[in-house]
Amino acid sequence: MSLNIVLFQPEIPQNTGNIARTCVLTNSKLHLIKPLGFSLDEKQVRRAGLDYWQYLDLTIYESYEELREKYKNSTFYFSTTHAKNFYHQVEYKEGDFVVFGRESSGLPEVIRESDPERCIKVPMINTTTRSLNLSNTVSIVAYEALRQMDFPNMK
After folding, report:
1. Using one digit for the tens of pLDDT, what is the confidence trace for 77-135?
2. Can you name the residues that pair with 102 across neighbouring β-strands?
3. Residues marked as binding for S-adenosyl-L-methionine?
4. 39-64 pLDDT, tens per residue?
5. Per-residue pLDDT tens for 12-36?
6. Who contacts 45 (Cβ-Cβ below 8 Å, separation ≥6)?
7. Which domains does the chain have, with CATH numbers?
8. In terms of DSSP H, where are the helices of the chain?
């Protein structure tokens, strides 16, 4: 496993499907934290993931606390527009976790404030209107992390 991608209470099925596809193609594990804003059986999720779902390494958690308890000795980064650090300014290692928030509201303040030095952001000119699409943000961060690891197990 190269990287762990965590979606905190995702709301849009197409985003989750696209992210699942990225996870399969990068040998990353996908972690979903409930409640989900959709059913994983929905057509939009399956269509976005196409035929990759059978290869996806997926775990679903009832809560963020459940995930953190299971991986209490792991390194976590938190993607948020409220961060001071850019996503490329941290040193990723195999097995690290990157947590992404809900499409409508991002990560809760309690999660962001749990370790502000591990909060990262993708630079944008204007964040007062909207931010990047979640699946685009996951791809940007994931590929930077994998680049730093010299693209482990990838051709």
Report:
1. 999 999 999 999 999 999 999 999 999 999 999 999 999 999 999 998 876 667 789 99
2. 106
3. 101, 122, 131
4. 877 666 666 665 678 899 999 999 99
5. 988 998 999 999 999 999 999 999 9
6. 13, 14, 16, 17, 20, 38, 39
7. 4-148 (3.40.1280.10)
8. 13-26, 43-49, 64-70, 109-112, 134-148
